[in-house]
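Throughout our pipeline, every protein is held as a single compact record rather than as scattered files. The record that follows is passed on verbatim for readers who wish to inspect the format.
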Amino acid sequence: MKPRRIERINSLLKEVLSEVILHDLKHRNVPELITVTNVDTSNDLTSAKVFVSLIEGNAEKKEATISMLQKMASYIALLASKKVTLRYFPALTFKIDDSMDKYMKIDSILRKINPPSEPTTDIVPENE
């Protein structure tokens, strides 16, 4: 279990990095449907893994976006460091958060196994 301080820093960085990527980062390859889902900072605060979720069906486009974010990581860290007060700002590493894709795959498998039943539309009158 992470110390409470690290959890607070993770939450703060998640909020600040989301704002920087969506509003301050002016780059033509940044999709509008990008979300910072989690930040995992090391205990010594020297590095942070930033997990982002992209609403894209194309795996190549996801990889290109992550690669572009990784190339701009120091610039993103510079912008974010102006919004938050930390003695040392961690080095950022961007990763794809594919938990939503996994959820959708599991959901589709479960729907194949047990299809949802039709909702009943019968209205039962109340006794007067």
In short: The two ends are 58 Å apart (CA to CA). The mean pLDDT is 84. Residues 67 and 115 are 39 Å apart (CA to CA). Helices lie at 4-24, 59-71, 73-81, 99-113.
